[in-house]
Amino acid sequence: MGRRAVIDMESWVCPVPLRDSPNVVMGHGGGGAMSQQLIEHLFLPSFGAAADANMGDSAVLDLGGLRLAFSTDSFVVRPPEFPGGSIGDLAVNGTVNDLAMVGARPTALSTAFIIEEGTPLVEVARAAEAMGAAALAAGVRLVTGDTKVVDAGSGDGIYINTAGVGVVAPAVDIGPRRAQVGDAVLVSGDIGVHGVAVMSCREGLEFATSVRSDTAPLTDLVAAMIRSGADIHTLRDPTRGGLAASLNEIAAAADVGVALQESLIPIPAGVRDACGVLGLDPMYVANEGKLVAFVAGGDAEAVLEVMRAHPLGAGAAIIGTCVPDHRGMVVARTALGGTRVVDMPAGEQLPRIC
Hints:
By secondary structure, the chain is an alpha+beta fold. It contains 8 helices and 14 strands. This is NiFe-hydrogenase maturation protein HypE. Belongs to the HypE family. One of its GO terms (biological process) is protein maturation.
């Protein structure tokens, strides 16, 4: 037998909590600061020269003049079926939306199922049927895939991975680093809906109002925004970590400050009430059918009109601006006239949401 490799954790350039914890914790997969630390201080150094330092939710690849967007995502939502959706349509819409956020027209997805031994086949069939229906609705094909089964007790029913490709038009240049001072910040509708919908059907939780997930493909909405001719700098679907995580990531990437007007952020009563019961901030709750856009200030009203004309953008609102102050930070003006810093979440308020 060969010698077992010894990994020197002391050599990692790593802040807390990675250096202080030899084991993975749930927060490392939450899309917040702990996820960033895991990527920046473990994965990227370990990948070495093979890694692209700009790794994000999607990459745009120039292949001999053809610009292709590529993305991959894994879905471990619990429970796998929830009001308004399931792990099947989530697996399609999540990857389709990551591609759309760089301005791509998604074309094809791969799908890989990891199934725990003993899972009823009817549950697998429901997830697969939901994937097929979601793919047709999103205008993409499921072109290749894989299936693995793990021992009973080694998984949690069904996990799904999807990877996708899409085509990016030559004139489209959308990315987190393009946000700039003077940009308007828009959101396409009510936030926090998906996370609350999933939490509403977990054991022991009941809310006074029914909230359904907003999972949906955003491709057509983005296409309409691009066709408007507006100068769209940045798009992001605020999934894990919610709106707060997405805005902080963009502020850091573009080195701009983000100033929000809290009263303008659309939060439905059901989400606000549920978050009040759970002690959560809706800004940090996951979404699956919403986007946040950074648009040149002079184009903001035109883009808002286009968004509101689309069913998935009917509740769109301008919620803030990019400013030269507090670069890399997000600050919100409250209803009482004060301000608060909207930090990057450390981990995840609601685990296993997507």
